[in-house]
Amino acid sequence: MFRRKFLQSLGLLSAGMSLPLAPAAVAELAESKAAPHKLNLTPLTIKGRVHAGGKGLAGVPVTDGYNIVLTDKSGRYTLTSNSTAEFVYLTLPRGYQIPHEKGVARFYQPIKPGQRSMTADFALQPLPGDDSKHTFMVWADPQMIDKKDTHELITVSAPDLKQLAAQYNSPNTFAIGCGDLVWDHFELFEDYKQAVDITGIPFFQVIGNHDMNIKARSDDGSAETFKSLFGPTYYSFNRGEVHYVVLDDVFFIGPPKKYIGYLTETQLQWLEQDLSHVKPGSTVVVALHIPVDSGDKRRNQLKDESLGGVVSNRHELYRLLKPYTAHIMSGHTHVCEKIFHENTIEHTHGAVCGAWWTGPICTDGTPSGYGVYEVDGPTIKWYYKSFGKDRNHQFRAYPKGANPERPEDIVVNVWNWDPEWQVTWFENGQRQGPMHQQTSLDPLAVQLQAGPKLPAKHKWVDPTLADHMFYARPSKDAKEIRVEVTDRFGQKYTETVAV
């Protein structure tokens, strides 16, 4: 009865519902008027050179977002384009530093409208060593709506990531902002950029539904502000042996703030070209905002999946990724989830803002935090980092009575769980075996978010069902209960539960 209506309402054409819009955003929408548009197809020839210290780099992909060409042996390229192109950019090759401005990745150059020719050179700096081993973090849904939210991001979230990045002490560390960088208030992008700068590592950005212009008359114009600050909405880069791709899967279908999860034909054609330069069998990481797939329909016994909660044409993405070992990074839902499809693992991340800055957890009980991925050659290991906790904080245990529906059971929430994990319990030092998995609500989420008056900041927030909940029933003679969780990489985490 506490089911949050968020995902069910997103993208529904008949209902026309979404997350609440700020009053200023609604006013801006009401005042917008469509201006005459004329498609400019003026031919454009882009030439340039990719080099490091004056030495040309061969075989580097360069694109206008439509077509991709490779640099020749001297690092030069010629790209035939037209005035519909907005950027020229490259796929950053392995072994080179990520160009950035105060942490914001700058791998592109804007194209000025109306010109017939353009020169775009890219000067790269080599890394001091091999980047086969590297680490990246995924920040999903900072989603600030006011200065109070940004204060938390700047004073708590960013310093936490800065401290963790310093522990790795490597120039091969970077992060991905996985969409909903703000919550419709575009003036807060500057606060987001300040937080990025504080972390001390380069960030690549993904566009989310709350990063779109809500007054746009179509999807084509919905990313104008985002592009002016962060560049193209889809692109790729390489680190070590891994190929990274960022996609825009939020398709805007008109005000007020309606959208679906969808990959356009233009992106898919570009992605086909991009992956043609990646050796089959390689590891490919795709970052986008809306999950490609989700267990929400199953958990909530819905008739149809949410149009704004998953990618409608995901099977085409799966087809393109089939020759590779693929990982998909997503956010949007403010829950932690792992989805497996053939050769692909999707990591849906808990939110930086938790349940929209209403408390320390997301709606499924996952702590506010971010994903951490340690890469060694083609292999990736991962864990979830909760703000204010060390990396060993991987589950939360509750005593008997925490779930009124199962008053005799202890409860454990293992938010980054997947089927390769083991959740075992011990009574009075004796191993009792695996705990029972059951889709249910997190007790702390119920305490903080359930009911019409909670949470105070956003009363529409409700707890959501999670697959990563586990139960066990101690005997009446139990004096000590210990839970042992082993992740898929063999790392063990333990906690004693009050009887």
From TrEMBL:
Q: Which PROSITE patterns match?
A: TAT
Supply the alphabetized keyword list: Signal
The signal peptide, as residue positions, is 1-27
Does this entry carry the keyword Signal? yes
**Start and end residues of each Calcineurin-like phosphoesterase domain:** 149-336
Checking Pfam families in the record gives:
Metallophos, MetallophosC, MetallophosN
Domain spans labelled Calcineurin-like phosphoesterase C-terminal: 346-493
Q: Which residues form the Calcineurin-like phosphoesterase N-terminal domain?
A: 48-124
Protein name, per record: Calcineurin-like phosphoesterase family protein
Traced from the root, the source organism's taxonomic lineage reads: Bacteria, Pseudomonadati, Bacteroidota, Cytophagia, Cytophagales
